């Protein structure tokens, strides 16, 4: 009897029609996980503690901003910023620019006046442009499968949004929200880290390969992105009283252990991060009626948390 049934099924091409009912298949299929569920299930090994040598802690009246440097992409700028922070260069300087849908910028408001500007101490006054570096196989790169209008390949490397071009052998960081760059003049090598900006608006990827990106803000973006916008040219504050004072900017490794920030960052070369990318490409939340099947580089979240022991 079973053999007769198989022959009849094949003859009528009805095998698929009498297979597992669709409703039953939907009930037994794994339920797609949300980002929160993916992060909650992440093992401790998928989180990393940033190197204190690469953490800058900026204290404002509004709160603390924590910035992670990217020495593998901007080694000379990172080294200069460590020196500037150790010697207290930014202490007492100000946030001088807040341009809507673009950037917030800080540094010496008297930087163009040689007689009044603050001394650099032992930091270097000139650095080479570090717009890109040679692709290194020893650096992890988690590629996003979707197309990008700005680079042949985009993804994440060491916690930073990045792009690369195998044809030229170059890799670089991308101007996504919360990324920090070193302002410069017209000359490519006219930045030294004394003027920094952070992206607060729609990702200005046209700046990629034109400015040195030095890192990204890990926490405290709310203290920068909510500053009053200036309607003056370039978003620079016109009056000194509009500027926001930087109380202190320190290198975490030089702070007492008890005062260092306690944060963990999701590893962008982890299984958890890959699952997070896919969850954001195809949102399974009940509210979503259509899965996009696509995500832009700068729309992928980069999770930061307080370590479990500090909660």
Describe this structure in words.
There is one protein chain. This protein is an alpha+beta fold. The protein has a domain at 49-113 and 122-261: Cyclophilin-like (Cyclophilin, Beta Barrel). It is 16% helix and 23% strand. The chain has six helices and 16 strands. An eight-stranded antiparallel beta barrel has the order 2-3-13-11-12-5-4-14. A five-stranded antiparallel β-sheet has the order 6-10-9-8-7, with no helix packed on it. It is globular and about 65 Å long.
Descriptors for this entry?
311 residues; alpha+beta; Cyclophilin; 8-stranded antiparallel barrel; 5-stranded antiparallel beta sheet; 6 helices; globular
Taking strands numbered 1, 2, ... along the chain, how are they ordered across the largest sheet? 2-3-13-11-12-5-4-14
Query: What is the percentage of strand-forming residues?
Result: 15-25%
CATH architecture of one domain: Beta Barrel
Count of β-strands: 16
How is the CATH topology of one domain named?
Cyclophilin
CATH H-level superfamily title of one domain: Cyclophilin-like
Helix amount, in percent? 10-25%
Termini Cα gap: 65 Å
In DSSP terms (H or I, runs of 4 or more residues), the helix count works out at 6
Largest sheet, strands/sense/barrel: 8 strands, antiparallel, barrel
> What general form does the structure show?
globular
Oligomeric state of the chains present here: single chain
- Order of H and E elements: HHHEEEHEEEEEEEEEEHEEHE
Alpha-carbon Rg, integer:
24 Å
Averaged pLDDT: 92
In the CATH scheme, the class of one domain would be: Mainly Beta
- Uncertain ranges: 7-18
Going by helix content, strand content and strand pairing, the class is: alpha+beta
């Amino acid at each position: 009897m079973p053999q007769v049934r198989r022959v009849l099924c094949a003859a009528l091409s009805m095998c698929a029609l009498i297979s597992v009912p669709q409703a039953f298949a939907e009930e037994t299929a794994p339920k797609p996980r949300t980002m929160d569920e993916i992060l909650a299930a992440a093992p401790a090994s998928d989180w990393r503690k940033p190197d204190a040598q690469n953490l800058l802690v900026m204290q404002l009246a509004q709160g603390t901003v924590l910035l992670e440097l990217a020495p593998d992409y901007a080694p000379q700028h990172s080294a200069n910023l460590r020196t500037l922070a150790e010697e207290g260069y930014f202490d007492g300087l100000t946030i001088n620019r807040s341009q809507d849908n673009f950037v917030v910028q800080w540094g010496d408001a008297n930087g163009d006046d040689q007689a009044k500007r603050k001394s650099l101490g032992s930091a270097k006054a000139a650095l080479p442009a570090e717009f890109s570096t040679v692709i290194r196989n020893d650096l992890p790169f988690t590629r996003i499968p979707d197309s990008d209008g700005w680079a042949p390949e985009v993804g994440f490397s060491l916690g930073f949004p990045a792009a690369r071009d195998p044809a030229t052998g170059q890799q670089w960081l991308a101007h996504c929200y919360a990324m920090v760059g070193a302002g410069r003049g017209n000359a490519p090598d006219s930045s030294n880290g004394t003027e920094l900006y952070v992206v607060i608006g729609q990702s200005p990827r046209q700046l990629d390969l034109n400015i040195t990106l030095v890192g990204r803000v890990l926490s405290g973006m709310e203290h920068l992105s909510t500053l009053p916008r200036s309607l003056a040219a370039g978003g620079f504050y016109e009056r000194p009283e509009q500027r926001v004072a930087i109380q202190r900017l320190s290198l975490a490794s030089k702070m007492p252990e008890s005062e260092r920030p306690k944060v963990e960052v999701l590893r962008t070369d982890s299984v958890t991060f890959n699952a997070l990318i896919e969850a954001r490409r195809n949102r399974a939340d009940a509210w979503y009626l259509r899965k996009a099947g696509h995500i832009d580089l700068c729309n992928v979240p980069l999770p930061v948390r307080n370590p479990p022991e500090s909660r």
